């Protein structure tokens, strides 16, 4: 098991991750992204895939041409954990 | 515009693409796949991405760890077209 996210960290979430929103009906966060085309979208996804393997923490995600939607949650915590914050920050860092 | 799939081809779809099922409520087909792990799933997705660029026909798809779900439809045809059959067959060929 992984420790669920503490209440103080939850309260700080909007400030820590301004580009991420709560996923309705789940203890998870999501971010939607748009790129110039599929090539750019999938190039980004490949970089996120490498991050996911490095951090051993994998997104739930979907892609339709230039759009990518990413949901982060931690199954072993039954919801959000520090792993999601770390991954979200790493994804944000890719986007500059 | 792209020509919508003809009725004879629709009638033959189950035989042509036995691994694909109609998407409920849409004129589209879908296939769900399971791999050993994320690495294998994303490796497969990368091969499909290369196909998609080659054929200039892109899937709607999602991934959760070792699972990949692919939906094919042709926006320019308002539903299924020959492009979807060609892409589905190319994806099936990757899976041997």
From TrEMBL, chains A, B:
It holds the Pfam family Pterin_4a. One of its GO terms (molecular function) is 4-alpha-hydroxytetrahydrobiopterin dehydratase activity. One of its GO terms (biological process) is tetrahydrobiopterin biosynthetic process. InterPro entries: PCD_sf (IPR036428), Pterin_deHydtase (IPR001533). It is an enzyme of class 4 (lyase). Its EC number is 4.2.1.96. It catalyses: (4aS,6R)-4a-hydroxy-L-erythro-5,6,7,8-tetrahydrobiopterin = (6R)-L-erythro-6,7-dihydrobiopterin + H2O. Keywords: Lyase. Coiled coil: none annotated. Belongs to the pterin-4-alpha-carbinolamine dehydratase family. This is Putative pterin-4-alpha-carbinolamine dehydratase. The lineage of its organism: Bacteria, Pseudomonadati, Pseudomonadota, Alphaproteobacteria, Acetobacterales.
């Amino acid at each position: 098991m992984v420790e669920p996210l503490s209440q103080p960290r939850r309260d700080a979430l909007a400030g820590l991750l301004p580009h991420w929103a709560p996923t309705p009906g789940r203890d998870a966060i999501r971010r939607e992204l748009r790129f110039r085309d599929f090539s750019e979208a999938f190039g980004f996804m490949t970089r996120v895939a490498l991050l996911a393997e490095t951090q051993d923490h994998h997104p739930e995600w979907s892609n339709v041409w230039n759009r990518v939607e990413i949901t982060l949650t931690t199954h072993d915590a039954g919801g959000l954990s520090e792993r999601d914050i770390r991954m979200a920050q790493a994804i944000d860092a890719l986007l500059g």
